[in-house]
Amino acid sequence: MHHFSAALVVILVGTASAVVQDWQQCGGKSWSGDSQCATGSGCVVVNDYYSQCQPGAVPQPEPQPEPEPQPPAATSIVLPGTPVATNAPSGTGPGKTLQSGYYWIRGVAAPNFHKYMQTKPLYSTGAALLGDYTTAGQFQIVDSQLVQLVSGAGEKPEKLLYGIVSETRYINNMSLSVTFSEAKNSYGKFAWNGDGLTWSVAGLQRPNAAAWYVCTGQQMYINLGNYLYQTPAGCADQTIHYYNDKTANN
C-alpha cells in the first residue's frame, strides 16, 4: 500500500501542468503545450493558430444587463445625453462622391467587411452604425473631434455633426455608445492610428485603442476591453479604417 501511494504521487507530479507566463502562447490549432495562464491573466485568442496569455484578461462576474441605446424614434425611450433625431435630416448630404478633405470609414473584416459608417436617418443626429456602401457618410478628425459632413457638395459654410461618446457604460459594462450631435464631443479624443480610427480619454487605459463593437441594429460601440475576448452576445469585434477612393464600394 505504501509503494502504491508513492507511485501515485509520482504520476500526479509528472502530469501537473506548468503555468504559462504573460505574453506567451497558451493555445491554438495543433498546440500541445500548457494552457493555464498565471493568476491575473487570461488566454486570449489572437487567431486560429495562436492564443496568448494577456495580463488583465481574466473572466469577470457576469454584470447585470444594461439597457442598450435605441435609435431615436417617437416611441423610443431616449437615454440621458443621447441626441434626439429630428424627422427632417440635419443636412442634404455631400452625395456619393468623396469631398476634398474627407474620408469614408469602413470595416474590413467579417461580418462587417466593407460596411460603412453612417447615421440613421442619414445626415441626421442619431446613433453611429455600419451600413451599406450606398449610404456611406463622409468623415474627418478635426481638433480630436470626429466630424461628419452633412451639408451638400460645395455648400458653404460646411455643416457638420460631431461624434459623441457616452460616459455611460452599456452591454457588458465595457462598451461606450457613439452617436452624432450638433454639439461637440466632450469625453475623450478621436485620432487616426495609421488608417485606423481610435478613441482615448485621460485616466482610462484601453488594451486596444482601435477596438470597436458592432451590435444589434449595426450600432457602433467603443470596446474598452480586450479585442476578440469575451465578446458580448449579439456583437462582433471590429476595427474600422478610413478609405479615400473617389466612391465607396463593396
UniProtKB/TrEMBL annotation:
Region (Disordered), start-end ranges: 55-93
Leader sequence residues: 1-18
Keyword entries, A-Z: Signal
Domain CBM1: 18-54
Keyword Signal: yes
Top-level lineage group: Eukaryota
GO cellular component: extracellular region
Biased composition (Pro residues): 58-72
InterPro entries tied to this protein: CBD, CBD_sf
One MF term in the entry's GO annotations: cellulose binding
One GO term of the biological process aspect: carbohydrate metabolic process
Protein's recorded name: Carbohydrate-binding module family 1 protein
